[in-house]
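call fold(seq) -> tokens
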Amino acid sequence: MRLVILSFLLVITLTVSNAILGTRFWKFRQMVENERREKALKQKQKWENIIPPIGRPMGEIKGQYLTQPLAHFDPMVKKTYQQRYWVNPQYWNNPNGPVFLYIGGEGGLEPYAVEIGEHVDLAKKYGALVFAVEHRFYGGSINDGGLKMDQMQYLSSQQALADLASFHSFAQSKFNLTEKNTWICFGGSYPGALSAWFRLKYPHLVYGAIASSAPVRAETNFEGYNEVVAASLADPVVKGSQQCADNVAAAFKEINLKIQQEKFDELQKDFLSCNNISNANDTAMFVSNMASVVMGIVQYNGMTTWSIKKLCEDMTQPGEPYSNLVTFNAKYLHESHEECSDNSFDDFLDDLRRLTLKSEAEAMRQWTYQTCAQFGYYQTCDKNTTCPFAPQMDLKSNTILCSVIYNISAQTVDKRVDFTNSYYGADQPRGTRIVFVNGSIDPWHSLSVLQDLSPTVTAIFINGTAHCANMEEPTREDLPSLIQARQKIDAKIGQWLQEARNQHLDNKLYFDSQ
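ret:
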């Protein structure tokens, strides 16, 4: 029986090909985080020179820990974990100032989460106490052995929201907070969805929510992602062009042709692959890795040294699009300090199966599990779409991966995605005081709320901006549309805080009159 099962798993593994989001996307994401860290340090140094911090050197806020139940909804499970959080009281108008909660997501947080960003700028203006709470199973908020399935079954958005509710109670007690301290939550990307969902599910705890780039509609086959990538590459607002989009598509069409012709040695040499890519899984890994670099540049346009402008300058040079992509890839690897690209599918599987973290930045096993168990979000390249990449990027490979690594079948993925949408309301949530902020360049906007749903559930759509752009520190290069969006968010926060003060005053007058 054991040999039969092992053989069956081997067959499944060998047929796992196509649309896995390449490992190079995770490296690009880490590049974005490194860039944010450097910007944060520069900004802190700037503020130190202008206004010396009171009571502590900037950058020395230490993470603290709160003991949380591993399973909030099952009293029979007694296990706990330590959730990390940071607090910045520097701008707080104590005792009645508001509380701004920055929600963590699929990666570790750092001290700059309470020191730099749009929410901190708003905290300075409105005298807010700032918290940042790390998501369970990421960063430093994970137990030893936390990547084993007997513990990872408790990695879910519902458990994460319950963590936030528990943290709210803890913070109320520790910092002597009362009903006069109005809570507003902030998040971007998956934490943007959590921000909206926290307001929806715990409206008595948080008064309003800013949900930036929030993919609140779960979707198994996320075809829209690469359709937005294609449109963004052609968008002149960000220095893209139709020629650029067409050339990227033509280059990947040539890659697909060479795959069909089995010219794997040529592809390996041209695109500096560390390994032979003739195995079907390695071929798919190669395609996904090549696509994921372009996808990362679009999603995080301008947040690193790479941008759509820079990519399109390379892709519209004289010559064949395929040759331009070869040149671009070599330049990208050089600037990333990589000699070659690891396109080994077996290495990728090893990373997903590994039960220990090499660093707090690692998140691939945890987040891939969340996509299988709740969200889908598989970025495919189907024939009926405008996706500029190769047809190897299909849905089946992702759902088979869920089965091989986590024992979650394709049918179960669909059911869990449907449940997520039923549970939260997808992109038609029924709530109040939520602002959804999205950028036209960001591929995730197609799963968010793009138009006002009611007078109090509103949308801000920013032409020409990428993923969570409004949450970044302002720069001289900011588009007018981004500046206006931040002003609208500021005004909404001010409106909410005034409404909360008025409500508190009305309640006080009512009880005083009794």
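Confidence is low (pLDDT under 50) at residues 1-20.
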